[in-house]
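Example record

One chain of 418 residues, shown exactly as stored in the release files.
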Amino acid sequence: MWPLSGVMCVSLIFHVGSVFASDLQVDQGYSDPTAVVENAVGDGKLAFVVAAVGNATGELWSHAAGTRDARRSLAASPDNIIQIASMTKLITTIAALQLVEAGLLELDTPIDAYVPELAELQVLTGFDSSDVPQFEKALRAPTIRELMTHSAGYVYEIWNADAQKAVNLGVTESAFAGGNFLASPLAFQPGTAWEYGINTDWLGVLVEKRSGIRLATYFENNIFKPLGMEDSGYELPEAKLDRTVTVMARVDGSLSPAPVLQPQPMTKGSMAFYSGGGGLYSTVSDYGRILQMLLNGGSMSGATLLKPETVDVMFGNNIGEIQPGALTTRMPTLSNTADMSFGVPATFGLGLLIHPSGIAGGRRADTGSWAGLFNSYYWVDRVSGLYGIFGTQILPFYDADAIETLLDFEQAVYAKSP
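Predicted structure tokens for this chain:
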């Protein structure tokens, strides 16, 4: 297992598209991480995979396999730029926590203190026999902490039947059609349940309101530049289009280019709305610097983004006895039913799913993790001092072959020398 931090005591060898710890021996029937990634493509399960592993000193290994284009003629590379979708949420959470440390936000203050229009929120409780929506008044507005933990009451139509029905009936607007989805009602009283949703989009709005600048600018000035993340941003430059990856859709077991959601170049600063919940482009090396910073207690390369005590809170249970649940799909073209806990007990920290007991043969206790819609996944393990990132560009989310490869990859990373 790679060391926690300090002097790197593994020898490294370099080869095409990959850096690998040469003295790592594997057991438990798993191959080394490179073989796991290559085999998934070689077996035809995936068209493109990129992955990386690192610790508090930096990236230890990265590898890409397969091809990045629809014709499957352009070889994948570790520096390929992917759409990280909801992996954006961790970055938005870090931004909001910076404002908490600055005294501009307070974790347990209801958000109507910052957005007075949210003082009269409604909870959608269902529909009557004539499909008329039924509402009750929210007892209070959600807090910042509840937005960060997805216990605020906001949900996604992908995984919530009432929210999907509300969109289909024109009661609310879709989060995937460019409308005013932020005006959606809550699905439950704040602080009473856990359900994944547009909570982090509202967090992004609060970052903009309290900082006085647009979210993309805030990220660039306060996170990307300090960490040296040169390939991360909302707008994809034309000059970097040749490093992007075609989004594939799995239909009846076969992969073909998805008809929508392909990478598109845009002029910097041109987007009307920056989503705190998704939308960033990045690379595994860039995103690894976020995770490396967390392994270092909030600092890296002379820059301090968060206080160590703030990072500690991020990796703790912030929802009490509430349990994160599986995401039951309502839109199978975008997502399969997904269990981000992988069948193991979990709770939620600030912006992170937490596995209090880890996963057998893999991540250790209190590891934080999450994912992106196009089947990209990460974990950050402070006990072992390791982070891992695994990315494909496939719809629907929680693709069975992607998940199988992810879990094999994780087991290979943690395989110990005898």
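Notes: The chain has a mean pLDDT of 92.
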